[in-house]
Amino acid sequence: MKVLGLAGSPRRGGNTDILLARALEGARSVGAETESVVLANLDIEPCRHCEGCVDTGVCVVDDDMQPMHRKLLQADRLILASPIFFMSVTAQAKIFIDRCQALWALKYLLKERHPTASDGSRRRGLFISVGGQKWPYLFDAAVPVVKAFFSVCDVEYGEELFFRDIDPVGAVKSHPTALQDAFEAGRRLVGQSSPPHLLE
Ligand SMILES: Cc1cc2nc3c(=O)[nH]c(=O)nc-3n(C[C@H](O)[C@H](O)[C@H](O)COP(=O)(O)O)c2cc1C
Q1: Which residue among 11, 36, 86 has the greatest number of ligand 1 atoms within 8 angstroms of its CB, and so is best to mutate?
Q2: Which residue range is the domain that position 52 belongs to?
Q3: Looking at the domain assignment, is residue 199 inside a domain?
């Protein structure tokens, strides 16, 4: 089983990077193959809304997003790790998500279903996020963004892992349970199987 981790923070070695690494470790502990992609390292333009993808489902902008579309469709499980920036995901993550408009065209205009996981189960995803504030509604704006992203990829929004009041780089390491929580969430992501995806 292949697990693709998307690191959405521009800060390397930061809190979401640490949590993503732990979740991938958890996934590997139950036999998954894992890959992590740092979105800030990709050379990707924002979506131009040029409609170039509507007839083919292929984005006409030739940059690092092309191989990422393939990776997204080949992954059995998906993890997006992004801190909260101004109440949403980071700009790096949002540009990446918007460029999935080609997958939206594939699914909704061309009526092509994205694959199920290699074991026939529905592909499932995990959203990991942290923010510096303690507000109870800290993740409320980011969640629908990520749900829409997962849905376009035909990935079930399986689980979320959120930590508030985490600001300095690496602060999440001092949280009493976060590292273990992330490990367990990665394990669960691979370990549990959802029923096979029903074609709509
Ligand atoms: C541009 C920017 C905007 C931010 N906006 C918020 C915010 O709206 N709410 C919040 O709680 N924290 C906000 N933060 C703080 C980060 O979410 C926090 O530092 C987090 O731990 C960073 O995670 P990382 O180490 O994975 O990059 C912001 C940080 C930056 C740089």
Answers
A1: 86
A2: 2-191
A3: no
What's the CA-to-centroid distance between 8 and ligand 1, angstroms?
12
Kindly compute the dihedral angle of the four CA atoms of residues 29, 20, 2, 107, in this order, to the nearest 10 degrees: 150
Split at pLDDT 50, 70, 90, the class of 196 is very low
**Whole-angstrom Cα distance, residue 108 to residue 57?**
10
Residue 10 lies in a domain: yes
pLDDT band at 192 (very low <50, low <70, confident <90, very high): low
Residue 200 falls inside a structural domain: no
CA of 195 to the centre of ligand 1 (A): 36
Output the domain CATH number for residue 34. Answer: 3.40.50.360
pTM beyond 0.85: the answer is yes
The rounded distance, in Å, linking the Cα atoms of 79 and 65 is: 17
- Asked if 145 and 160 count as a contact pair (C-beta separation under 8 A), the reply is no
Domain count, the chain: 1
- Ligand 1 nearest atom to the CA of residue 84, by list position: 17
In a domain, 98, yes or no: yes
Protein residues with CB under 6 Å of any ligand 1 atom: 9, 11, 14-17, 83-87, 130-133, 138, 166-167, 169
- Backbone phi, psi, residue 79, to 5°: -125, 125
C-alpha 107 to ligand 1 mean position (Å): 33
